[in-house]
C-alpha cells in the first residue's frame, strides 16, 4: 500500500492527519513544501482545488483536511462504527474548524491595526467562547469527545498547536485543564511521541 500526504512544512491543517497516521503505525510519505516558496506552479496546478493538504493512496486521491483525517482515522481505529456517534464527532471537528476559521481571518488580515484588534478579540473573547465549550464536552466524556480516544481529539490538539503558531502566542490552557490533559496525552501516544521527538520546530 503506498500513501503520500502533501502539505507545507508547517503544522496547519496537516498535523492532525500526521498524528493519526503516526499513531496508527500507518506508513506514508510525508511530503512538505516551504510556504515561502509557494505557489509552486507545477504542484498547485496539479491540485484539484489548488490547495493542500492532498492525500494519495494506491492511485486514489483526496483533498479537504477533515475528509482525509476522518479516512485515515478509520484505518487507525479512531472512528466509531455507530452513525450517531460518528455524527457527534463530525460536529465536534466542525466546531473546532469554526474556531480555526477565526484564526484564518486573523492570518489573512494585512492591515496591522486591524490585525492587532483581531488578535485582542481572539484572546479576550473568541478563544474562551470555543475552548470553554470544548472543555465541557471533554469533561462529559472523561477527557475525550467520545467515550474513548477518537480522531476529534487529534483534530483539537493539532489545531490548537496550529493556532499557537499562527497567533505567535500560546493559548493559555490554565482555565481548560481537560484540554491540557488531552493535549499531553495525544503528544505522548505511541507513534506520535516518536514523531514529535524528531520533528523540527515550525516557523512561519
Ligand atoms: N478546506 C480546505 C482548506 C485548505 C487550505 O486552506 N489550504 C491552504 C493551506 S492551510 C493552502 O493550500 N493555501 C495555499 C493556496 O491556497 O494556494 C481543507 O480543509 O483542506
TrEMBL record:
Which enzyme class, named as a word?
transferase
**Keywords, alphabetical:** Transferase
Query: Which ranges carry the GST N-terminal domain?
Result: 1-80
Q: Which CDD domains match?
A: GST_C_Sigma_like, GST_N_Sigma_like
Q: Where is the GST C-terminal domain?
A: 82-204
Catalytic reactions on record: RX + glutathione = an S-substituted glutathione + a halide anion + H(+)
- EC identifiers of the protein: 2.5.1.18
Query: Is Disulfide bond a UniProt keyword of this protein?
Result: no
Q: Can the keyword Protein biosynthesis be found in this entry's annotation?
A: no
The GO terms describing molecular function are: glutathione transferase activity
Q: Name one GO biological process term.
A: glutathione metabolic process
The record's comment on protein family reads: Belongs to the GST superfamily. Sigma family.
Its assembly, as annotated, is: Homodimer.
PANTHER family recorded: GLUTATHIONE S-TRANSFERASE, HEMATOPOIETIC PROSTAGLANDIN D SYNTHASE
Q: What's the name of the protein?
A: glutathione transferase
The species this protein belongs to is Heortia vitessoides
Which lineage?
Eukaryota, Metazoa, Ecdysozoa, Arthropoda, Hexapoda
Amino acid at each position: 500500500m503506498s500513501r503520500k500526504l502533501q502539505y507545507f512544512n508547517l503544522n496547519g491543517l496537516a498535523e492532525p492527519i500526521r498524528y493519526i497516521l503516526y499513531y496508527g503505525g500507518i506508513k506514508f510519505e510525508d511530503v512538505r513544501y516551504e510556504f515561502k516558496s509557494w505557489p509552486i506552479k507545477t504542484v498547485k496546478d496539479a491540485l484539484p482545488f489548488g490547495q493542500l493538504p492532498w492525500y494519495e493512496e494506491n492511485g486514489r486521491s483526496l483533498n479537504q483536511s477533515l475528509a482525509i483525517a476522518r479516512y485515515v482515522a478509520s484505518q487507525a481505529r479512531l472512528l466509531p462504527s455507530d452513525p450517531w456517534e460518528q455524527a457527534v464527532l463530525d460536529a465536534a471537528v466542525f466546531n473546532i474548524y469554526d474556531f480555526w476559521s477565526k484564526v484564518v481571518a486573523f492570518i489573512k488580515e494585512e492591515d496591522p491595526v486591524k490585525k492587532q484588534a483581531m488578535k485582542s478579540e481572539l484572546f479576550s473573547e473568541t478563544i474562551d467562547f470555543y475552548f470553554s465549550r470544548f472543555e465541557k464536552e471533554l469533561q462529559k466524556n472523561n477527557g475525550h469527545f467520545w467515550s474513548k480516544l477518537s480522531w476529534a481529539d487529534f483534530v483539537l490538539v493539532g489545531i490548537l498547536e496550529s493556532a499557537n503558531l499562527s497567533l505567535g502566542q500560546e493559548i493559555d490552557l490554565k482555565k481548560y485543564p481537560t484540554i491540557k490533559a488531552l493535549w499531553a496525552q495525544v503528544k505522548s501516544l505511541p507513534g506520535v511521541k516518536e514523531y514529535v521527538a524528531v520533528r523540527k520546530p515550525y516557523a512561519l
